[in-house]
Amino acid sequence: MKSKTYKIEGMTCAACSRAVERAFRKVEGAEEVSVNLATEKMNINFNDEKLKEEDIIKAVEKAGYKAIPLTKPLSLKVEGMTCAACSRAVERAVGKLSGVEGASVNLATEKLTGAYDPEEVNLATIKNAVKKAGYKAVELEEETSGDYDREKKELAAKRLWNRFVLSAVFTVPLIIVAMGPMVGMTLPSFMDPHHNPLTFALIQLALTLPVLIAGRRFYQVGFRALLTGSPNMDSLISIGSLAAVAYGLFAIYHIYLGHKHYAHDMYFESAATILTLITLGKYLEAVTKGKTSDAIKKLMGLSPKNASVVRDGQELIIPIDEVEVGDIVIVKPGEKLPVDGEVVEGLTSIDEAMLTGESIPVEKSPGSKVYGASINKNGSIKYRATKVGKDTALAQIIKLVEEAQGSKAPIAKLADIISGYFVPTVIALALISSLVWFFVGKDTIFSLTIFISVLVIACPCALGLATPTAIMVGTGKGAEYGVLIKSGGALETAHKIDTIIFDKTGTITEGKPKVTDIITLKHSEEELLLLAASGEKASEHPLGEAIVNAAVEKSLALKETEAFTAITGRGIEVTIEGSELLLGNKKLMTERNISLSEDIEEVSHRLAEEGKTPMYIAEEGELIGIVAVADTLKAGSKKAIKKLHDMGLKVAMITGDNKRTAEAIGKEVGIDLVLAEVLPEDKAMEVKKLQKKGQKVAMVGDGINDAPALAQAEVGIAIGSGTDVAIESADIVLMKSDIMDVVTAIQLSKKTIKNIKENLFWAFGYNVLGIPIAMGIWYAFGGPLMNPMLAALAMSFSSVSVLLNALRLKTFKPAA
Fold this sequence. Notes:
The protein has 816 residues and is an alpha+beta fold. It is 49% helix and 20% strand. The strands form six sheets. The chain has a seven-stranded mixed beta sheet with strand order 18-30-29-28-19-26-27, sandwiched between helices.
């Protein structure tokens, strides 16, 4: 028996709560259901063998409501991971806990994310599961997580460097002592292997021990992982290097017994060199990984540390964290704005490039919105703080980029699956290959060389880092150019797109239409415009707003409306001074049986062919004229659509405008497919139609009515100047209102996915080639035997090379 609580949305009265309870009467497995209308929560006791969570949610939906599991977001920093096998082990350990959903570990950011049900499991239990797996989970404060991460990474890199230096100090003389006699070097007589083999061996042991102590973390982590049944890269290094040391001790014992020839068969230098080279590789990896999150560091460094505010009539300088909503903030020329707000006094221009990527400063006056971290160029202003701390636009961007960098792309699944089986397979291959060579007649030294080489050359790190590092750099680079990609999945999907649908108004066009023509049949032009503007003043449609603005420019005194009805996708119905007026498109006139003469139809067609939208006006059932409105194209629309065509993409435009007007605009900018006279609620249906034809669709829009289509498309792209609803529904947000950034987003996706594929090819290829060579297959066909020290060097280089390849994305530049 299991008990769970859900949030129920859509209930308005006691009948609703009873309806939800009744919905479970015939559901097998549901034992006791209680719905609280006041708290909008449902408690259910059920048999989890007969009833699954998805069935509970469906039963509530069938009753007409929505059930949402009461889960909390899970975000923990995991310390101690060194390779993909580690992240896989943490995922397995946490994923087994009842109440934890979607546990995902990103090796590059060292973060565990997902969701958990606080009624079934708590954070302490989750942290304990991580601890049992051999790692440490740390809870982070949202506001300080960036600084904490940076400091921890810098400290970890410094420790690795110190470890490397200490190891190298002892390893270099060890190599000289151990290998000098092989190349003809004469050692002092007290340590000469021919005269004093025991001293020769003990000096090597003495030089090896400090290296083992410096690299003890490999053993602590490696054997702990081995004992928990989730061996990792450190386990391979630990077994390989200790095998070399154990054989060295075995050789010292035989030298002590008088078998001097063992002085030439010791492996101390291999053990020390392996640890030293891998420590160097880990240091380079840590430094390179730090560079992948440069975008976050840059964003975090944009905000000023202090703010000037007015309190009790005095100007005070306070830390930015102490600024409160409602405070009056003073910003002088050249200073950065500390928080978001609204100007109350002063005129200035502000550089908002950090938010939008737009280099031209924006003019600000009382009533204008301003954003934290933007730069005040030339005038002093006072503004009221409206958003502070984690609510500011910059903080939201940082959060968005962090979430995207922490997410996994679907392409990473294969690497995740393989890394889960990788280390046990390598250990098995090392044992099998060394035993095979031993039984075919090779000596212990040869077999040990094979065993150590296989363990040391294998690199699960490269597999684990291939995808997340590229996503971190790619999403960070996007943020730099004002393209906010919300997840790794969106970044991957964008490169598969073959069709892009643009909403017309506010996306391809400026969204600020103007009245161009007034055709009258009864009144004067001014009278017709006055009637139209009086009717449209209560409308929120851009075309209506254009008519009102035209009347205001002519200083016409608008009349009062007695009744107003908006008719979605058609126009408006309004009563002015007792007369009923209809303003709208041809559909509205046809539905209301308003007769249109051939001459009027011809005028309407001509206006539409010129890219203008004709709006019919009828009074008391009789057509009295047409007001034509045209929207200007955005400067970059033609160029962006040409670039998309050059990339092999099909471009469509969707609009509620009449077909002739839409086709005129479409022809002007080079659109392939024009979807005209589409009602707002049907936009998502048009996206579906294209998807049913097998096309991968991206939808670009900015309005509330675009939200369903943005959600329906494979990739939803919202213009940043659009509504919050559109931005929430989108996968990619363009901070500027420039559709050239659509080209940037697609190009960045293609470059990032290409980079990921290169990384995965290198990571898989390295292991597929390296492990057989280490097993002695090349040697069997007459080639040389792999030296364990070379294997360690190759292993270290593989991870660093993947990271360096990911960093090449930092050179990405948008198409000009």
